[in-house]
Amino acid sequence: MNNPKTLPGWVKPALELGPIVAFFAAYLLLKDRTFIIGGREYEGFIVVTAGFIPLILICTGILWRLTGKLSKMQIVTAVLITVFGGLSVWLNDDRFFKMKPTLIYLIFGGLLGIGLLRGQSWLKLVMEEAVPLDDAGWMKLTKRVCAFFLILAALNELVWRTQSTEAWVWFKTFGLTAALFAFFMTQGKLFQEHGIEKKEDGGA
Description:
Blueprint: H1 11-30, E1 34-37, E2 40-43, H2 44-67, H3 72-91, H4 95-117, H5 122-127, H6 135-162, H7 165-185, H8 188-194
Antiparallel strand pairs: 1-2
Membrane topology: Multi-pass membrane protein
Protein name: Inner membrane-spanning protein YciB
Family: Belongs to the YciB family.
């Protein structure tokens, strides 16, 4: 039986965040340029998107190879990036790629909502190992995460439909990431009230 692989602490964040940082840097470098490829004119954003798709797939594949597993969110994110990024490149239309965060948050917010209607915390299924909580804590956290994801979906729609591409790239790279970080930082009281001790396997 294969044991879970232990990686240095920086590897997973580097593989998950590295492509996003690379996308942002490449966009800043190429945003004002246009490229003629196959007789068609493409803006820098579309070219950067075309490079981002294989990069995220390669990093996701490396992560799976190193850890032996991927979360459902990582799989769905990679699929949506491929589909909607691919549509943006194929149709030379940046709107499809900008819709991708909206769909990700709607899908996961909707799934959590379905679980709540069934009286279940589906968030617990994917985060139980990382965040040990009692059942009441999981239900509270799931309701909050569900609402938060739906708010982020609406916010992404508002930004990409009303702001420039550059403003959306800044929002996508830093705004959404900061919002997720701030959200979980504000859940400290819930973690404190509903946290449970992890059981140690075997003695020291």
